[in-house]
Amino acid sequence: MEQLKDFISNLFSADDWPPRWVCGDWSAFHGWLYITSDIVIWLAYFVIPAIIIFFIQKRHNLPFLPVFWLFGAFIILCGSTHLIDALMFWWPGYRLSALIRLLTALVSMATAFVLIRDLPKLIEMKPQDELKTYQMEKQLKMYEAEISELKERLNSNTK
């Protein structure tokens, strides 16, 4: 219990370790290749959930919505591990890195569990049924617009 209290109270302390540049024999090329790659991966891992959120907002009645949210959290946390790895070259926040990795592990397992649980339902879904529903909803909206237009014409003719 004492170690946990120590861990939490020193979560943002980097005094116990040297920056990554000092560990080993990093050449400037190798270090910057590592840092740049991690930052680009982090950036992609933040753009992908933004696209997922945009998709969720545009698609109404989306089945299996929790799966999308879990994927988003999983991807953001994976990206966070890359960002903290890049920062380690200057700020060795290994405790924070460990916490982010723990959260990533937990969300990863939750995502895997939900996918395993929902896979039979996902397999049973018939894309054609969804397409038909979408087409029927689109047709219904067109009919509703036509009916509204006809009512307006009728009202303007009777006045």
Automatic annotation (TrEMBL):
Keywords: ATP-binding, Membrane, Metal-binding, Nucleotide-binding, Transferase, Transmembrane, Transmembrane helix. PANTHER family: ETHYLENE RECEPTOR 2, TWO-COMPONENT SENSOR HISTIDINE KINASE. The keyword Transferase applies. It comes from Belliella aquatica. It holds the Pfam family ETR1_N. It comes from the Bacteria. The chain crosses the membrane at residues 39-56, 68-92, 98-116. Residues 34-124 form the Ethylene receptor 1-like N-terminal domain. This is Ethylene receptor 1-like N-terminal domain-containing protein.
